[in-house]
User: Which sequence fits this backbone?
């Protein structure tokens, strides 16, 4: 089934329900459907469909979702990109995927045009794209596709070199959408969804699920994340669910706490799905104390988009905070040793995933695909362990594991301990080369304002074995993160090596 059929059905069943609200204007599902169909017909007319690539490089706004569903509808492939990409980064993606169309907005038009290949057509939302979307529609039916046809190319964040494009088929997105509605946020046409995170990433999958259920979707007016405004928007619009990254949850918790607000002030909010980066148990407990048990954690990579494990609202208990929850129904998750054998309970190994959410492969990278998908199993590169009752605990990225004096040190384990210190706001643990030990365990700490963290070694010794305790502590004002909130440990290691952090 073409993934665009979700929108077609919602428009048929609930044509007058509000679909997209942004900056004082609301499109109902009939108008959403019509504009999507107009975009799809235009793609066909210019030879950009089917099976051609459409890059989306713009801030959250209705045209992003119209172009996304329009590309699906035409049988083309969407390539959503973070709107913070530079010319060098964007031009690489445009050329790598051989994009025929690049959709942007006025704020990013200069970068988009500078990044376009000679064969790429650039259209600007709010300007010449409007003429495309206003065209009369002849055919409302989605283009027939094969289940394995690529619907979305999800480029990795590129923290270890040039990004790779994970090919996600219509079959994958169908499973992910149905699974989302079953496991994460059960929704119907009475719900209200807030898109406060980039639609190029996890929020984009949330948007497909919301569209499938004819949900009213709110896009904040401001581009930047404004916690007071977001809390006000949730209250005023009766938002029932949203997708956030952990950094946003921490910011909302800090704002609500400072203002004396709590979950009682947001009675409509039922589900906050989060993922994309770790959140410490201390930070999550503060969020639970503030907003109540509305949080649902997912774990999954772009290669198995947002679909591997889940920690349900009721699972957010002290003994499970810090875990990745349990495998999702329909997905197989194992912990394996280097030979591919399943590890015994609580024995560390690599986390592998199999099931209908796994990508087809990497775009134009057969060697990388063969290295990642072996015998039907996606090798995530994440190290973890699984308890006898199926709870998954992530330990580290394989490339980030620290080997000190011949012993394996999992940074996440050390970070979880250190963040329980009352003076620690954030911490990232890395390994740096050392002639004697191979690698030294180093903690880069963001302290609470005015806090004393001089006793961290003593504090850590109460819980951690000696070889896991950091040999050095470096204090800084903030940790470098990518656009999705993940700490850039490669950047931290470089800064320490160059003496920028000491």
Assistant:
């Amino acid at each position: 089934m073409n993934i665009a059929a979700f929108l077609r059905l919602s428009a048929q069943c609930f044509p007058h329900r509000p679909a997209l609200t942004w900056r004082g204007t609301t499109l109902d599902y009939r108008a959403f459907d019509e504009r999507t169909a107009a975009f799809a017909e235009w793609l066909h007319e210019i030879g950009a469909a089917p099976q051609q690539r459409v890059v989306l490089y713009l801030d959250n706004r209705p045209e992003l979702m119209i172009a996304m569903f329009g590309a699906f509808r035409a049988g083309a492939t969407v390539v959503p990109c973070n709107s913070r990409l530079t010319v060098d980064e964007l031009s690489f993606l445009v050329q790598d995927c051989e994009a025929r169309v690049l959709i942007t907005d006025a704020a990013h038009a200069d970068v988009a045009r500078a990044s376009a290949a000679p064969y790429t057509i650039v259209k600007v939302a709010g300007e010449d794209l409007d003429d495309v979307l206003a065209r009369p529609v002849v055919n409302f039916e989605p283009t027939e596709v094969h289940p394995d046809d690529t619907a979305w190319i999800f480029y990795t964040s590129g923290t270890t070199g040039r990004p790779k494009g994970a090919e996600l088929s219509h079959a994958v997105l169908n499973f992910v959408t149905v699974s989302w509605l079953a496991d994460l946020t059960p929704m119907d046409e009475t719900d209200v969804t807030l898109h406060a995170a980039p639609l190029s990433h996890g929020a984009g999958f949330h948007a497909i699920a919301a569209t499938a259920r004819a949900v009213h979707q709110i896009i904040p007016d401001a581009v930047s994340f404004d916690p007071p405004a977001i809390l006000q928007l949730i209250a005023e619009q009766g938002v029932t669910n949203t997708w956030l990254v952990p950094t946003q949850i921490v910011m909302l918790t800090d704002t609500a706490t400072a203002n004396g607000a709590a979950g009682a002030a947001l009675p409509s909010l039922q589900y906050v799905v989060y993922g994309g980066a770790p959140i410490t148990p201390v930070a999550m407990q503060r969020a639970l104390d503030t907003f109540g048990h509305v949080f649902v954690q997912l774990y999954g990579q772009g290669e198995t988009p947002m679909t591997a494990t889940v920690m349900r609202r009721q699972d957010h208990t002290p003994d499970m905070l810090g875990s990745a929850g349990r495998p999702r129904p329909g997905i197989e998750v194992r912990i394996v040793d280097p030979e591919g054998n399943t590890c015994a309970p609580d024995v560390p190994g690599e986390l592998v995933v199999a099931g209908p959410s796994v990508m087809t492969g990497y775009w134009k990278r057969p060697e990388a695909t063969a290295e990642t998908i072996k015998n039907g199993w996606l090798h995530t590169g994440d190290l973890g362990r699984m308890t006898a009752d199926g709870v998954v605990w992530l330990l580290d990225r394989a490339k980030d594991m620290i080997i000190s004096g011949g012993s394996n040190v999992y940074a996440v384990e050390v970070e979880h301990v250190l963040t329980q210190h009352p003076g620690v706001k954030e911490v990232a643990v890395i390994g740096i080369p050392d002639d004697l030990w191979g690698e030294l365990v180093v903690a880069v700490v963001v302290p609470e304002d005015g806090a004393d963290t001089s006793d961290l070694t003593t504090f850590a010794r109460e819980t951690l074995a000696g070889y896991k305790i950091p040999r050095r502590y470096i204090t800084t004002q903030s940790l470098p993160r990518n656009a999705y909130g993940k700490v850039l440990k490669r950047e931290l290691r470089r800064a320490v090596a160059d003496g920028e952090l000491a």
